[in-house]
């Protein structure tokens, strides 16, 4: 394993996206079935998984209880929207908004409307008081689709809040993909390496960037003509990661673009 791959693996684990999660499928504690669960969050101390059969969502710190998945593809969810709507929202929508669920995919208006209606009608529910999904999606764009950063920004690290953020990220990676700047705002013409080097040097010295420099830095790092504000980059990536990405850009690589896509699709 190369040093870069090893670093990427360690970073993924810190973000709860350990590559090992793909090979795990613990027994579902709710329905008792084997081979029906998918681990979608795995860090050093905890894991979260959901059951495609009964749709239970489970958190555990007993990592030793996680077992290897059976051979073959992971189970498909019984409902096409189960990946994008948290279990409580999906259960409510089945009885109160069945017509919306009849669509093959949930478009932006429908996705927002379902959550807004659920929040208005969820008095006494564990979901009452959760941040609106529109605010969560806006913050996901700003935070390069990294769930942990969004949860920290929202100041709500409950399982319910994290679950809503993660389902919104999945929706952006699926039906909402065209709205993601990392996908939809690809730059037609990339800047030359010298311009990116100069912009990065100014930025890492803590000096303000001219408009053209900010554009060159974003395009060099992400290959887009939009994205997070330069002022926020050091909240998302270290100076060393940015410097390394600038060096890699000279060779035609864009590792930070790859990192953002990996966070979106995790």
Describe this structure in words.
By secondary structure, the chain is mostly helical. It contains 13 helices and three strands, in the order H-E-E-E-H-H-H-H-H-H-H-H-H-H-H-H. Helix 6 packs across helix 7.
Q: Per the principal axes of the C-alpha atoms, what is the gross shape?
A: globular
List low-pLDDT spans: none
Q: Termini, distance in Å?
A: 21 Å
Assembly level: single chain
Tell me the series of helices and strands, N- to C-terminal: HEEEHHHHHHHHHHHH
How much is the average pLDDT? 86
Helical percentage: 40-55%
Structural class label: mainly alpha
Summary keywords:
single chain; globular; 3-stranded antiparallel β-sheet; 266 residues; 49% helix; mainly alpha
Quick take:
With 266 residues, the protein is mainly α.
Topology:
Layout: H1 3-14, E1 37-42, E2 47-51, E3 57-60, H2 87-96, H3 98-101, H4 108-121, H5 133-142, H6 147-154, H7 159-173, H8 181-184, H9 193-204, H10 211-222, H11 230-236, H12 239-249, H13 255-265
Antiparallel strand pairs: 1-2, 2-3
Helix pairs in contact: 5-7, 6-7, 9-10, 9-12
């Amino acid at each position: 394993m190369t040093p870069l791959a090893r670093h990427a693996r360690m970073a993924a684990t810190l973000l709860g996206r350990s590559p090992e999660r793909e090979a795990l499928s613990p027994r579902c504690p709710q329905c008792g079935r084997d081979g029906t669960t998918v681990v979608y969050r795995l860090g050093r101390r905890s894991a979260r998984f959901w059951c495609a059969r009964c749709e239970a969502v489970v958190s555990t710190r007993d990592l030793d209880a996680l077992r290897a998945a059976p051979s073959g593809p992971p189970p498909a969810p019984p409902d096409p929207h189960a990946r994008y709507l948290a279990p409580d929202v999906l259960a409510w929508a089945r009885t109160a908004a069945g017509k919306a669920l009849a669509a093959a995919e949930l478009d932006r208006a429908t996705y927002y409307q379902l959550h807004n209606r659920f929040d208005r009608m969820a008095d006494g529910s564990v979901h009452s008081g959760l941040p609106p999904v529109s605010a969560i999606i806006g913050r996901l764009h700003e935070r390069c689709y990294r769930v942990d950063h969004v949860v920290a920004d929202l100041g709500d690290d409950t399982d319910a809040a994290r679950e809503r953020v993660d389902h919104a990220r999945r929706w952006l990676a699926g039906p909402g993909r065209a709205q993601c700047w990392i996908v939809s705002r690809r730059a037609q013409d990339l800047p030359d390496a010298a311009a990116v080097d100069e912009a990065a040097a100014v930025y890492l010295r803590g000096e303000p960037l001219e408009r053209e420099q900010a554009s060159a830095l974003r395009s060099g790092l992400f290959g887009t003509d939009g994205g997070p504000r330069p002022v926020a980059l050091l909240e998302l990536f270290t100076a060393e990661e940015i410097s390394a990405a600038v060096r890699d850009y000279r060779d035609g690589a864009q590792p930070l673009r790859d990192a953002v896509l990996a966070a979106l699709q995790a």
